[in-house]
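Practice problem: predict the structure.
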Amino acid sequence: MSKLKENLRLAFSSIKSKLVRSLLTMLGIIVGIAAVMSLVAVGKGVQQTILGNFEKIGASTVVITPDWSLLSESNAITEDDIEALRKQVPLARYVAPLSSHTGSARSGDAEDHMQTSDNFLLYAYGMDIDGFNLLKPSMIYGRSLSPMDYQDGLPNCLIDEYSATIIYGDASLAVGQTLEVELSGGISGRLNIVGVGTFDSLNLITGVAEGLMSKQDQKDLASASVFTPLASLGRLSGNPENAKVLFLMAEEAGQAENAGNLALQILERRHNSEGQGNYRLQTMSGIVEQLDSSLGLMSTLISVVASISLLVAGIGVMNVMLINVTERTREVGIRKVLGATPNDITLQFLAESVILTSIGGVIGIFAGFGLARVLAAYMHITPKFSLGWSAASLLVSAAIGLIFGIAPAKRAANMNPIDALRYE
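Answer:
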């Protein structure tokens, strides 16, 4: 125990005496560990956010999307198709079509409240009452869309809280405003904002990368997302609005795939396209598996990059320790003359190397926590820190010091004490 204390004392004394060199040596370790910790925390935060939104939608939901590379306009999912599915798929609780358009909009009557004076980018999503029941938006100000809005296709819409805040400065000011819209497909007219809410599940389905990671870009472009009855989009364009995506929620999770397959058969039969693959079916569990696979690949890439960084850092540690051994040759000779064994010398330099990289690891962990919070704030998510990853990072740091410190330690231990004492 006394030898261990002595080695630790000598190690800390050496690190402190060459503080700048020690910090520069730690830098590679700090950068590598910080990168791993921050990206893992952000990645897990993204995963938690996405899976949380999937849980809101439910495991009993399937998504049917037309393959637009194969599909002609005559085979698009129409309002008649939706009604047929509701009647002929007894396992379905909700059959919810979704249509979307991009375009531009400007305030029709309240520019004094607007934070942007010119037109702004608009994402308009059309759904029927089944869709809003399935996705369960949370209202904050105003009211939700009423059955009359859906039935009569009234030009009313909801706007998400973030967009309302960006455009009007205060989300509560959006209620009662009118938007003059010009959308793709020749759609133009006016939409009345009747409510402000959050639509996390819909953002997830319509594009998780956009929903989670481009809100700052949306702010820079002064963009907004609005949600209106499917029939309202049809009235604006003068033509029935076809569905670009179809959600189907079964009564029970175990019935989801059967209900989805039956819906596919009905769609293919109605459009005389059996076996042509015009429609694709995805279950929530399948989407989650794809997500896990993608995040796993991302984690692997992060690990590879971090390993390269730590390898370079380890080589730097070995070089610095070799310099330390050279500079302290006479010290090694004196210790050997006074009775220190080769093992004592080896442990002395190994202790210094391990402590050096371990301190770098600790600093890297805290730096990673800070960087993760900055990235998460930018992406509007909550980072998820892992005690297991922190412990593993610390162990890896210590292991780097041990592995790359062996050669310098052995070199010091094998010195001839007479030659060491003569060293100038």
